C-alpha cells in the first residue's frame, strides 16, 4: 500500500494477538488499556562516569518535565535507566503521583563502560536473581529489563547480561529493552535472545533503530516479530531524525505498524523541554502531528497508545501487589 498525506491506515489487533496481563508501574500494576499515551523510552534520572556534569539527578526538574509532558497529553513514561546508573527508584512513585503520569522503571544493566569493576562481578545466575527481585518483590518494582549491545557486535559483557536478562524474563515474563549501540547489531541481539535463549521475539524491544536507518534491517527485525523503538529526537548529534517518517512509512506499508514505539530518550538536562531541548513533549507536539498528517491518526494512536500497552503488558509470574 502506498501511503499519502491523506491516507488513514486502520491498525487493528488482527495478527498481533490479544493484549492481556498487566503493566507494572511504580505505583502498582495497571491494565493495558489504562496506560494511555506513552513515551516508550526515556530517562528522568541518569548518571554515568562517561557523562560527567550531565547527570539527570534533580527531582524538581524531572517533575517539571513530566508536567510539561502531561500538559501535551502524555499519560505514561517508561524510564529505561537500569541498575547502577542513578535510577532514583525511591523518587519515582512520588513523581508519578504528583504529575499524574504513569511511570515504568527498569532493572538490568547497560554496557560495562558505565560501571565500576565491583558492579561487573555477579555471575549470570546471581544477576538474573537480582533482576527478578527488582521485578517482583522490591519496594519499587521494575516493569522491564534493560540490556545493551556493542557497536556492530555483542561483546562478552553484553552476552553475559543478556543471558541473565533471558533467565529473568523466563522467570517473570518481563519484556527486554535493548540499547543498540548506534542502532547496530539488531539481528545479533535477536539471534542471541530469541535463538539461543528462547525469548519470544515480541518480548524484545530494540531501541535506537533510527540511528542505523537501514530499511532492510528494519524489515528483518519486524518480520522476526520484535518491537522497533524509534527514540532520541533530543539527540542532535545523531542526525537521523529527518529519516524518521520514511522509516515509519516503510514499516507501515509492510504491515508492521503494530510493532513501532516512540521515545524521547532524554539523557542530559539540556535536552529537556524545560531547558533548550525538545524533551518529552516533542513526541506529542512535534512528531505526533506529522505522523497523523502523513500516516493517519490511527497509526499515530497505535504507535503512541496501543503498541506500548502490548509491549509492556505481562502475565506476571509472581503474586501481584
TrEMBL record:
Binding site for Zn(2+) 1: 41, 43, 146, 265
Keyword Hydrolase: yes
Keywords carried by this UniProt record: Hydrolase, Metal-binding
UniProt keyword Transport present: no
Gene3D superfamilies: Metal-dependent hydrolases
Domain of life: Bacteria
Residues that bind Zn(2+) 2: 146, 179, 208
PROSITE patterns documented for this protein: PHOSPHOTRIESTERASE_2
Pfam families: PTE
A Gene Ontology molecular function term of the record: hydrolase activity
Family classification: Belongs to the metallo-dependent hydrolases superfamily. Phosphotriesterase family.
Protein name as catalogued: Phosphotriesterase-related protein
Source organism: Streptoalloteichus hindustanus
